[in-house]
Design brief:
By secondary structure, this protein is of the alpha+beta class. It folds into four domains: 2-167, BirA Bifunctional Protein, domain 2; 185-280, no CATH class; 296-447; 457-553, no CATH class. It has 21 helices and eight strands. The chain has helices spanning 11-18, 53-64, 66-71, 96-109, 152-167, 185-194, 200-212, 218-227, 264-267, 273-280, 296-299, 303-323, 330-346, 349-365, 378-390, 397-423, 427-460, 464-478, 496-507, 512-521, 531-542; strands spanning 2-8, 31-35, 80-86, 123-127, 132-138, 231-236, 242-248, 262-263. The strands form two sheets. It has a five-stranded antiparallel beta sheet, sandwiched between helices. Helix 13 runs antiparallel to helix 14 (349-365) and helix 16 (397-423) packs across helix 21 (531-542).
Length: 592
């Protein structure tokens, strides 16, 4: 049940709309379901011989405005309180009596007409559809004082949550006042008329978010907005300092052919210029020096792949901070939002839509009443800046593997964000985090399919003793019981990509067992749907292996990767051929 509150100054005008046909003839059988005293005249139910609905509507408006006229100029300029209350499409249809109960509880909750108060404000509830009503009240009490209407929206929301529970309706998640402004009905209707997939407000919000992702200065932020094709208008103080900014979409004009401007604060609370400046206080560096822990091999990779590997390491650190469950981790959510925005605008075409949806969903999870410290998001903002400046990544090769690597980490980060928000009662932010995780999983499956398949193929051509040795190491590290060595079906095959990664790490000079144990101990794995794939990407980061298996490990042409070689005739196997030493499985076999 969703309440929507507005204020106005024309009582009769609002009544005429509520009892009229609607903008699209959507109003059916408009009638009163409740009023301040239960005896208010109903224009649609005046069926006498001399019935005149227009005259009855005038009488109803005059009765509602009676106390407003009595106080004269002391009345508030916007004395009409208008609240529409709508049920979910999946809810049952409420009766008029139930809607009357809903209306009375809401005007009581917001202190317009408390139960038992004879001096409460006058109000009516009009129903012209199955799923919603409109409450109209005039904000002057019987004692000619104004009602105390502080936090009326928050109180109406809280009362709706209680009504949902008591009436068996779908229970929505409580808000905390940090959500972005929703498009108005007029904006949605205009988007439909003009053939837009979304309203200008939503398009501008996404464009501004992407412009601020990793921006190093205010000037760079405004430059990115203009490069994105937006109209930008700055508001200056008499001293010349910039006080704020407005943006507009090209071609989006009002009836006077003027651009429709939106200030940043009307797009989202955290997109106002003061809030953006707070984020830019600790700007990421412009230098391209590698981070500590990166190798010369990493610097030789393509720019998109290199920046994504750095982002994966940074996101994993942020996940650890979120798991520590401290309030200082709020900054990591803001930085993770910028990282997702950066990935969404530079993603390969195959995953771009899912990443855009993930960034849009997670945007709600970045805002709460827990203030983020600017210095705590420097690493994530720097990673986002590197991704933006590296440009669009390819959907194949090392770029594709690095994309899968960072997405695997971001899935766990968003799940950690959901747990962090849930622990603080942030229901909407927790739901947004889980929704973002689902979109990231879909993008990850597309990105990781080819690299993981290639790793599994590498495992199929490993010598059987070596493969069994790595599988034993994996089972010991994960605490799983051993199976028959010749069982290559069922759970054994799931270790193929991990076994191939351990073999590649061993060839690079690492201890496979120590490397695997370090990857397992990094953080929990219970939230991962594919624990083996998560370990694959962790090990490849720890061992500085390519995100996509190198060409040197490809099987020779003509090798059958799925079928075993046929047995040799007995006559030719009388003299056994020399076997490869197990200490060096990659040394070529001796010539016969």
């Amino acid at each position: 049940m969703i309440p929507k509150i507005r204020r106005g100054s024309r009582t009769h005008g609002l009544l005429a709309y509520l009892y009229g046909p609607g903008k699209r003839d959507e109003h059916t059988d408009p009638h009163l379901v409740g009023s301040w005293d239960g005896f208010a005249p109903d224009p649609s139910r005046d069926t006498g011989a001399d019935a005149d609905p227009k005259a009855t509507m005038i009488r109803l408006a005059a009765a509602l405005d009676l106390r407003v006229k009595q106080v004269g100029t002391a009345a508030p300029a916007q004395h009409v309180w208008h609240c529409s209350v709508r049920t979910d499409p999946g809810d049952r249809i409420l009766s008029d009596e139930e809607w009357n109960t809903v209306a009375r509880r809401l005007v009581h909750a917001v202190n317009l007409a408390p139960e038992g108060d004879p001096d409460g404000c006058r109000w009516v509830a009009v129903r012209h559809a199955d799923d919603h009503i409109h409450i109209l009240a005039t904000m002057v009490r019987g004692d000619l004082r104004r009602p105390r209407m502080n936090y009326d929206f928050k109180k109406a929301q809280a009362e709706c949550r209680r009504i949902e529970q008591e009436m068996g309706l779908r229970q929505l998640k409580p808000g905390d006042g940090t959500a972005a402004t929703n498009p108005t009905s007029a904006e949605r209707f205009k988007a439909e008329r003009t053939g837009r997939a979304e309203t200008p407000r939503e398009s501008l919000r996404e464009a501004v978010r992407q412009a601020v992702a990793g921006a190093a200065s205010e000037e760079e932020f405004f430059t990115r907005l203009r490069e994105a094709g937006l109209r930008v208008k700055l508001r200056h103080a008499p001293s010349g300092d910039v006080l704020g900014y407005n943006v507009a979409l090209p071609g989006d004009r009002n009836r006077d052919s003027e651009p429709i401007w939106f200030p940043g604060s009307k797009l989202a609370p955290d997109l106002s210029l003061p809030r953006i400046r707070r984020r830019l206080t600790d700007a990421p560096s412009d230098t391209a020096t590698p981070r500590p822990g990166t190798s010369r091999t990493d610097r030789s990779r393509s720019a998109p792949a290199r920046t994504r590997r750095i982002a994966a390491v940074t996101a994993e650190r942020a996940t650890v901070l979120l798991d520590e469950d401290g309030d200082e981790a709020a900054a990591q959510l803001v930085g993770a939002g910028e990282l997702l925005d950066a990935l969404a605008q530079t993603a390969p075409a195959a995953t771009r839509a899912e990443l855009r949806d993930a960034a849009r969903a997670f945007e709600r999870a970045t805002r709460s009443h827990i203030r983020a410290e600017n210095a705590d998001i420097r690493a994530l903002r720097s990673a986002a800046r590197g991704i933006v400046h590296a440009g669009t990544a390819l959907g194949r090769g090392e770029d594709g593997g690095a994309t899968a690597m960072v997405l695997s980490t971001l899935v766990l980060l968003t799940l950690a964000a959901a747990r962090w928000h849930s622990a603080r009662g942030h229901a909407q932010q927790a739901a947004a985090s889980r929704q973002a995780a689902e979109h990231l999983r879909a993008a990850y499956r597309q990105s990781a399919a080819t690299p993981l398949r290639t790793m599994r193929e590498r495992a199929q051509v490993l010598p059987e003793p070596e493969r069994r040795r790595h599988e034993a190491t994996i089972r010991a590290a994960l605490g799983e019981p051993a199976t028959r060595a010749d069982n290559r079906t069922g759970t054994a095959e799931r270790f193929d990509a991990l076994a191939a990664t351990l073999a590649e790490a061993e060839k690079a000079g690492h201890d496979p067992q120590a490397l695997l144990e370090e990857a397992v101990d990094r953080r929990e794995l219970e939230s991962a749907r594919d624990m083996d794939a998560v370990l694959v990407w962790r090990i490849r980061r720890l061992a500085d292996l390519p995100a996509f298996p190198s060409s040197t490990s490809k099987p020779k042409a003509g090798t059958n990767l799925t079928k075993k070689a046929p047995a040799r005739p007995a006559a030719r196997t009388a003299t056994p051929a020399p076997t490869r030493p197990t200490t060096d499985p990659h040394r070529p076999a001796p010539r016969r």
